[in-house]
Amino acid sequence: MNKTKAQARDSRVKRLSPVSILPDDLADLAAEVIAANREAGRTVALAESCTGGLVAAALTEVAGSSAVLDRGFVTYSNESKQELLGVSSAIIETFGAVSIACAWAMAQGALLHSNADVAVSVSGIAGPDGGGPQKPVGTVVFARAIRGSEELLAEERFFDSGDRAEIRRQATLVALELLLP
């Protein structure tokens, strides 16, 4: 994000609660997401794995978030991705839970099982264990699905901090950005 865009955001978005248990960057971006989606008349749903509900927690730090956040699914295990979001076992077996295919299926499942207009999913390897040569610790995938749209927005990112908390924080920031209209 360029500096002028960040400055503009900071000047128009004020957190409704001055106290947050989250770092300022997460709380401020969550406030922007709530304000922008409220203005756009959109509701959101989340499908989270490696962030373990941090995206939903950031959004619910903002007073009035209930007008925007429909629901969140914390689907940490492969079984929960299948049971709650309808992710096919073939996708997980073929591509893995940390794949564009799985992230896309998670976002679609969150839309299907909610009343939201837009859904964002996040799945990754926060570490310190679980990584490998093909998908090292710090690999995180994201997807956004919009109800009634065939647009595919999915991406893989690599966060090279080596620190579990920092990988989860960065993944939460990306997921929040994807929720901006």
Shape: globular
Question: What is the CA–CA distance across the termini?
Answer: 15 Å
In the CATH scheme, what's the topology name?
A: Maf protein
Relative strand content: 15-25%
Instruction: Give me the CATH superfamily.
Output: CinA-like
Which CATH class is shown? Alpha Beta
Give the mean pLDDT: 92
Number of helices: 7
Helicity range of the residues?
40-55%
The oligomeric status of these chains comes to single chain
What is the number of strand segments?
5
Total domain modules? 1
H/E element sequence: HHEHEHHHEEEH
The Rg value, from CA coordinates, equals: 16 Å
**Largest beta sheet: strand ordering:** 2-1-3-4-5
CATH architecture: Alpha-Beta Complex
Spans of at least 5 consecutive residues whose pLDDT stays below 50 are none
Description:
It is a single chain. The chain has 181 residues and is of the alpha/beta class. It is globular and about 40 Å long. The protein has seven helices and five strands. The model has no long low-confidence stretch (mean pLDDT 92). The longest helix has 17 residues, at 24-40. It has one domain (21-178): Alpha-Beta Complex (Maf protein), CATH 3.90.950.20. The chain has a five-stranded mixed beta sheet with strand order 2-1-3-4-5, sandwiched between helices.
